[in-house]
Amino acid sequence: MKKQSFNHMLALATTMALVSGSQAVYAQAANTQAATAEKDIEEVVVTGFRQSVLNAIDAKRNSDTVIEAISADDIGGLPDVSIADSLSRLPGVTSVRTGGQASELNIRGMSGDFVFATMNGREQVSTSTGPIAGRKIEFDVYPSELISQAAVYKSPKASLIEGGVAGSIELTTVNPLKNDKAHSINLGVRGSSNSRTSEVEDAIDLGHRFNASYQGKFADDTLGFALGYAKLSAPSVANQYIGLNYNGQRNIDADAGNEYVSEGMEMQQRGGEEQRDSYLATVVWEPSDSFTLKGDVFNTKADSEAFARGFRVKTLHSENTVITNPVIVDNNMIGGTVSGNGNTNFAVFTVNDNDSREAEVLSYGLNAEWRLDKWTINADVSFSESDGDFQNGGTRALLYNDTSVANPVRSPESITYLNKGLKPADFFASENYTNLNRIALTEVGQWPFITHNEINAQKIDVKYEMETPFITSLEAGIRNSSREYTGARGQDGYGSEFGNHPSQFPIALTEDMVKVVEFGGDLKGMPNFFAIDFDDAVAAVEAARGRDWNPVANWDNNWTMIQSGTVTEDVLAAYVMANFATELGATPVTGNFGVRVVESDQSSDGYLQIGAGAGEAITDERGVVSNDYVRNEMGQKYTDYLPSLNLNFQVTEQDTVRFAAAKVMSRPPVSQLKSGAGSWIDGEDRFNAWGNTSPLLDPFYANQYDLSYEHYFADTEGAIVVALFRKDIESFIEQITLRGVDFEALGFNVPEINPNTGNPLKPGGEYQTAYNNTKGGYIQGIELGYTQTFDFLPGLWSGLGVSSSYSYTESDVERINNLGGEEKDIGMPGLSPSNLSATLFYDYEGFSTRLNYRYREAFVANQVAVETQEVFYADESVVDYQASYEFENGVELVFQVNNLTDEPSKTYFGSEAQTGSIQYFGRQYFFGVNYKM
C-alpha cells in the first residue's frame, strides 16, 4: 500500500479542495427562504436528488457534532438495494462488497468491528455469523425504502450511546405526524437482471423488488399511523478464482534456500438468490403540544440461497508431489506443473458448497416525551434481537482409477497453472473430471454457525432549558441494557477430505446426482466438472451409514461444544452534558461538553475440558454423555469515563469552524468473549488451555480529535468542507499464547488434581487465547467536500449539480501477516489511504438523473476461502447510474445500473503476483415504476 507522510497528504488534499467534496450532505443557509422572499423570486418546488442534497445539507449545518447525513428523499427515492449502498457514498465511509453487494461499512479507515449502529436511537444487534462475529452490522439487511433518514456521527457527544471507535450510524424511520399530507401512499415495483447470469449454470435470470407504504393522520392530526413493506428477490452470481495462502516451503529451484508455495487454488461458479422481506409499523399519538407517545416495530428477514461449485486444488507443497517448470517471483512459486501419485495430500477436488444463510432482525420500542415549560423528559424502552444461520455445508469428490471396485484407489493426477496477478490464472488438468466411473464422493459435511443475539434496554433523558449568559441547557440521562448472545456450532459428516478415513468408504455417484457444468465468462476454458446436488449427497450418506443427518454440537467433534456458548453483558450508563452559546470576540460559539460514565459487567458460560472422566456428566445434542468437561463461567466488570467536547465557531453567516475531542470505546466482538476452552496437561502436571476466545477481554479505546472548516455558498446551494481528524488507539486484540498462567486466579474452574496421575496440578501453564496485547497507534487523515447546485445557470442548465468527496487516511498501526509467505506488515484492517466519491446529478422538471463514481485504494480485510484469509483488496472503482421521470399524475419511471463498468473484486497476498481472488459479479439492471399519492 502506498506510504505518504501526513504533511505531504495534507498539502495534496488541500490542493484538491476545490474539485472534491462531500457526496452527501452539506448545508444550505438557514435563512434561504427569507432571502428568497426578499428577492421576490418565484417559489420553485425542488424535487429529486437535488432535494435530498439540500435536506441533508440542513442536517449537517444544524448539527452540534461532526456528521454526514442522507435525507429521506435520497433513500426513499432511489432503488438502492440496501441502506449500505446509500451510506457508502458519504465522505469517509466505504463498503466491503460481499457477493457484489455493499454490506459491511468502514468509517475513516476502521472496519465494521468498530462501527456502532442504532435505529431510532436504539442499539441494533448484529446478524453476522462466524468464528469472530456478533457486533459487526450487516447493513445490507436494511432496505433503503423503509429508512427515512441516516446519519453518520464522526464525533460523539455524551448523550449518544457509547460503542463506536470508528463512528456511529443512526437509522431513522418515518414519523407520520410530520408528513406534509394527511394521507399518502407510495408504491414501487422493479424488475432486475444481472449481466453474468448466462455464465453460471442454474443461475436465476430475473429478480424483482416491491415496496408499499402508507402514512396517515387522524383525530385532528393528533394520531398518526405508518405501515411499510419492502420485498427483494435478486439473482446472485459470480465467477471466481481464489488463490490460497502461501503456507508451505519447498526447495524447488536447487538454490540455497526454500521457496514459498501456495496451499492451492479454487475455480468456482457461484449462484443463488437473495431474498429479503421487511416490515415497518409506527403509531404516534400527540394529544397536546406537551406530550408525544410513539411506538414502532421494524422486522427484516434475509434469506440467501447460495451455492459455490467447481474445483479446489490443495497442498501443492506436499512432500511427495513432483514440481516441474516452476515459475518463481520474489522467492514465491506462482506457477508450474504439480504432479501427485494419488497417495499424497495433493488433490484436485470437485467441490459443491452450500453457503446459504438466513438472517432476521426484529426491533421494537415505545417512546414517551413530555415537554413541560423548560423541561423535556424522554423515556424509552426497547428490544432488539437477531438470528443468524449459516449452513456452511458441502461435498468433496476425488478422482479414482475405478469407482466400481470394492476398494477404489485414488488416481495419479497433475495440474499446470500460472498466476497472472489480478487476473484469473491459467489452469490445466491432466485428467477428465466428468467420468462417473472415476469420480466418487470422499466427504460430505455440514458445519453450521447459528447465533441468537438480543438486547433489552431502558433509558430516561432529561433536558432543562436555561437563560444564562453561557449555558443554554443541561442534559442528563441514564440507560440500562442487558444483552445475551448465544453462538452454537454444529457438525455432521461422512468420510474425510483426502479419502483416507479407514472405515468410511467413498460413495459412488449416479447419473441422477450429477450434471456436467462448463465454465463461462472469464473462467471459460477451464476443465468441466460435476455439479453434485447436496441434498442427494446427504441422502446417499444416510443410506450408507444408516443414520439420519443431524448437524448439531456433539462430543465426537468436541470443538463444536467448546466453540458453543452464551455471553451476557449488562451495561449501566449515565451522562451529564451542558449545551452552551457564547461569543469569542465577535464570533458566536456554540457547542456542548459532558461526560458519559459506563459500568459494564460481562460474563460467559461455556465448557472447559478437564479430561479423564473428572468432569460433570454433560449430554450433547445427539444424546451422548461426556464426563471430561465442566461448565465454566467467567467474566469481569469495568467502569469507563468518556468525556467529550464539541465547539462550533460561526465565523460568518457562510463560514463555520468545528472542533471536537472525545474519548471513545468499542467492545470486543461478542462471540470472542466466550469462555469455552479445550485443555491438556503436560508432563510436569501443568494445566494448559486453548480456545482463542476470552471473557476477560477489554474494550478498544481511543482518544479522537476533529477539526473542520465549512463554507456555505451565499448565492447558490452548496458548500466546501475541509476536515482533519486523528484517533489515538490504545490496543487491538490478537491471538496469543500466554505462559506462566495461574488459571485459578483468572477464574477458571480447573481441578486441583491431575486426573491422569493423581498428582497435584501446578500453576504456570500455557493459555492460547485472545488478548488485548497488540500495541495501538494513530489513524489520521483529511476529508474534502465540494457540493454545488448550478441553479444560477439559464434554463434547463439550472438542473445541474455536483456532489463529491475525497479523503486521505494514514496510520502507524503495525500488524504482521505471513499468508503471503514471508512476514509482512499489513497495517490497519479496512484502511484505504485514498477514497474518492463523485456524483454528477441533474434535476429538471420531472426528469432526474445521476452518475456516481467511487474509488477505493487497496486495503486489508478478510477473504473467505477454505478458511478465512487476510488479504489485500486491490484498488477498485465502482460506477452506478440512475435515471427517472415523474409524471404529473404521480407515476414515476425508474432505471438504474449498478456496477456499470462490471468492476470485479480483486485481492492478493504479499504482492500482486500472489493472486488472492478475482470475483466477477456483473452489472445489475433495475427498471420499474413508482406511484405516489
Task: Please write out the topology.
Blueprint: H1 6-15, H2 32-38, H3 48-62, E1 67-70, H4 72-76, H5 83-87, E2 93-98, E3 101-107, E4 115-119, E5 122-123, E6 149-153, E7 167-172, E8 183-194, E9 206-218, E10 223-243, E11 248-250, E12 259-261, E13 264-288, E14 291-314, E15 322-329, E16 332-340, E17 347-354, E18 357-372, E19 375-390, E20 393-399, E21 413-418, E22 426-429, E23 439-446, E24 449-465, E25 471-489, E26 492-495, E27 507-508, E28 514-517, E29 529-532, H6 534-545, H7 558-562, E30 565-584, E31 587-609, E32 616-619, E33 625-650, E34 655-666, E35 678-681, E36 687-690, E37 700-712, E38 718-741, H8 743-746, E39 765-789, E40 800-811, E41 816-817, E42 824-825, E43 834-844, E44 847-856, E45 859-864, E46 868-873, E47 876-886, E48 891-898, E49 905-908, E50 915-920, E51 924-932
Parallel strand pairs: 4-7, 12-16, 36-39
Antiparallel strand pairs: 1-6, 2-3, 4-5, 6-7, 8-9, 8-51, 9-10, 10-13, 10-50, 11-12, 13-14, 14-17, 14-18, 15-16, 16-21, 17-20, 18-19, 19-24, 20-23, 21-22, 23-26, 23-27, 24-25, 25-30, 28-29, 30-31, 31-33, 32-33, 33-34, 34-37, 35-36, 37-38, 38-39, 39-40, 40-43, 41-42, 43-44, 44-47, 45-46, 46-49, ...
Family: Belongs to the TonB-dependent receptor family.
Organism: Cellvibrio fontiphilus
Pfam families: Plug, TonB_dep_Rec_b-barrel
Could you explain how this protein is built, in words?
Residues 1-29 form the signal peptide. With 933 residues, the protein is mainly beta. It has a single domain (6-932), classed as Maltoporin, Chain A (Beta Barrel).
